[in-house]
Amino acid sequence: MGDEISADEKAEIGASLILLAPPKQTKEVVRDVKVLAGDGLLIEKKIMKALLMYAKEQTVQVTLPGSSCNSLVTEHGDLGSGRFLCPRSHRSYSLDLYTHAVDDVRPVKPDDGEGGSVELEQWRAAVEDSLTAYMGQNFPKGAVSIFAPASKKSQ
């Protein structure tokens, strides 16, 4: 019968369902997608890609060890290879896309590279401090991350 759905189509459909998951329910949705679409390498790759997109689109909050403020997972802080930047503490970290747990935290300095702009750091910190105070007063469970991209001339 020509109505069969290919493994790739099942994986794509499953990954798109993950992007629709309610907050804090991605584990349950992933489990259900694996039941429906199968549990192979193809679906796992699509799931990981969808979880990365979900974390950045939903600006997931994470807490780095020793930090009093949460950091946001965003496209602007994505350093590639599963690492993200916390501009406030000048640290990078790897993120478990299933649990949103932080691991392998490393220092990084504003250096006109992955650490952001040296020239803009003073302004970045001032804006972040002001917005953090505002958030604390009006949205106690909110978080702020301000990124200062590296200048184009140094790249």
How far apart lie the N and C ends?
Answer: 55 Å
Q: What characteristic shape results from the CA principal axes? A: elongated
- The residue fraction in helices comes out at 25-40%
Tell me the strand order in the biggest sheet.
3-4-5-6
In what range is the share of β-strand residues? 5-15%
Q: Report the sheet with the most strands, covering strand number, pairing sense and barrel closure.
A: 4 strands, antiparallel
Structural class comes to alpha+beta
Q: Which regions are unreliable across 5 or more consecutive residues at pLDDT < 50?
A: none
Order of helices and strands: HHHEEEEEEH
Number of DSSP strands? 6
Overall pLDDT score: 89
The total of helices stands at 4
Folded structure, characterized:
Helix 1 runs parallel beside helix 3 (41-57). The protein contains four helices and six strands; from the N terminus they run αααββββββα. The protein has a four-stranded antiparallel sheet with strand order 3-4-5-6, with no helix packed on it. A two-stranded antiparallel ribbon has the order 1-2. It has helices spanning 7-19, 26-37, 41-57, 121-138; strands at 61-62, 71-72, 78-80, 83-86, 91-95, 102-107. A hairpin with an 8-residue loop joins strand 1 and strand 2. The model has no long low-confidence stretch (mean pLDDT 89). It is α+β, with helices and mostly antiparallel strands. The N and C termini lie far apart (55 Å). Helices cover 39% and strands 14% of the residues.
